[in-house]
Write a structure and sequence with these properties.
mainly alpha
């Protein structure tokens, strides 16, 4: 159990697309940041429950399933890159026909942003498809099976929602350099997506 707690907590706190998305959304509003964190937590819970129900075994038996999920997730991340670049261009006044936005402007869109970013996050795919599977064994107790998603839910809510709220507290300072945050987010999303596509196609192997 200790190993599961350590690995899961580390995976949740590891910086990546999820944390960048939450900071972006949270910089506009503490409430929206917390809601985005909730969406990310729900995404983690979906991954965890899916793994318990057989996703990890399916991925091990049919590796092509992970490839399909990785390509789908990479496609969404690249769409996010396009959205961020379009917003940056609009903010710089190069494209006056496209309104500049700072991201989701309602709880529902903030929730979806966190959820879809997490579900498309290759980091989550690798964790739940590989690392998480080592804790799912035939002799696993019912108590541990219940504890795993419960811990992911509880720790995820504390970390992700807290991160979104804190980003909102520092919103004005972050807003001054929002273009920097957007550039970093676009770069991270693009690197992760291209890296995952390269791995699927065998370019980096």
């Amino acid at each position: 159990m200790e190993a599961f707690i350590l690995i899961t907590a580390s995976a949740i706190m590891l910086p990546g697309p999820d944390t960048m998305q939450i900071i972006r959304v949270g910089s506009a509003s503490r409430k929206l940041g917390a809601v985005c964190g909730l969406g990310t937590t729900i995404g983690n819970l979906i991954w965890g429950v899916a793994s318990l129900l057989g996703l990890s075994v399916l991925v091990k038996t049919y590796p092509v399933v992970m490839d399909v999920l990785a390509l789908a997730g990479s496609a969404y991340l690249l769409y996010m890159v396009f959205t961020l670049v379009r917003g940056l261009v609009a903010q710089r006044g190069i494209n006056h026909t496209t309104p500049a936005t700072r991201g989701p402007d309602s709880p529902s869109t903030a929730l979806r942003a966190g959820l879809f970013t997490n579900l498309s996050n290759p980091k989550a795919l690798i964790f739940y498809g590989a690392l998480f599977s080592q804790f799912i064994t035939p002799d696993m107790s019912l108590g541990f099976a219940i504890f795993m998603p419960a811990f992911m839910l509880g720790f995820g809510l504390i970390f992700y929602c807290g991160l979104g709220y804190l980003a909102g507290v520092a919103g004005e300072k972050i807003a001054r350099y929002m273009w920097v945050v957007d550039v970093l987010a676009a770069v991270i999303f693009a690197v992760v997506a291209i890296g995952m596509i390269g791995n699927v196609l065998g370019i980096f192997s």
